[in-house]
Specification:
It is built from 7 helices and 5 strands. The protein is of the alpha+beta class.
Length: 152
Amino acid sequence: MATHTSPATTNPKYSNPLTPTNDMKKIALFRNVNGSPEFVDRFDTMKEASDCVASIVDGEDDVTVFDFTTEEQEYTDIIERVKSYADACDVLGVPQLDEKAMLSAGFRPDEIARRKLETITAALNEGRNPDWCRTAKTGIWSKNSGVFEREQ
């Protein structure tokens, strides 16, 4: 009797057909700064990227729409890529801390743990540094509703 194999059984990407994968295409937006492209953000649609460019151009005098480029890229959600401290170091391209050397140099375990958490946070933020003082851009946490609300 011949057996039939489907992509769901042969390809780990399709291991559960009912669960969507986190591999997707995203629009990466880059800004040309002094001749080299700098990553701005990733978007689901070209309209979202265009809206971001428009808001940057409206807010800065020396920037034009011609300073930006987009590129469609394969993208795996950062939460799927970073599951540990070692993963975070791989994503950032930094070496892992030498805990034994740090302990012998006088670092406390909580100081080492804090540095590891900072590395994980940097990886999960994908290069973005939130400015918590500018609530108009970052939004506010509403204690009453228990919801993060973005100000318009």
